[in-house]
Amino acid sequence: MDGSEHLSKRQLQALQTRENLLNAGRSVFLEKGFQKATMTQINKLAHTGYGTAYVYFKNKDDLFTELMETIMQKMYDVAALPFKPSSKEEAFAQILEQTRLFMKSSLEEKEVMKVVKEAIGVSAIVEEKWNNIRARFIRGITKDILFVQEAGLANEKFDASLIAKGWFYMNEQVMWELVLGKIEDDLNAVSENLTMLYTGGLYK
Description:
By secondary structure, the protein is an all-alpha fold. It has helices at about 10-30, 40-45, 55, 60-80, 90-110, 110-120, 125-150, 160-180, 185-200. The protein is built from nine helices and no strands. Keywords: DNA-binding, Repressor.
């Protein structure tokens, strides 16, 4: 039950219109790219009245950040996987799987992620959204590092927050290169190399 059974007909209609606009937005951004996409094109494809898109979204940047949240959900789910290893080997296996799933999720949304990359470079609103996404991942990684440090599996001299940033930025850079086709290595090999580098330095 999602609570929609308690909504009025008008509220349900508004939810559907919003969903239509988001779906239309995705199609227009994929076809035109971020810079060339317009709210008029999105409105037209969604078959909504003139200017209706502005009732739900301030501008195309606002609509796009909403789409980004949907796209990132798969990656959030990966980051939220339980991480309570009892050995270095167990930690390695879990980190390897998380890294592989993170990269796989981005490749499954490759075309949209290309538009995200473009949008980050030209929209302050989208860039801020991406920075918020980064911060969310880094907080989660920091928490995981603190856990393994307290469990005696990792070197406690390391600054957990700093290492978390380094680990995320390294993964982010590789992710963009995979999405843009600049790395053609096997996904498993890429994930294994990153994980060996990370765990080799952090873990005892």
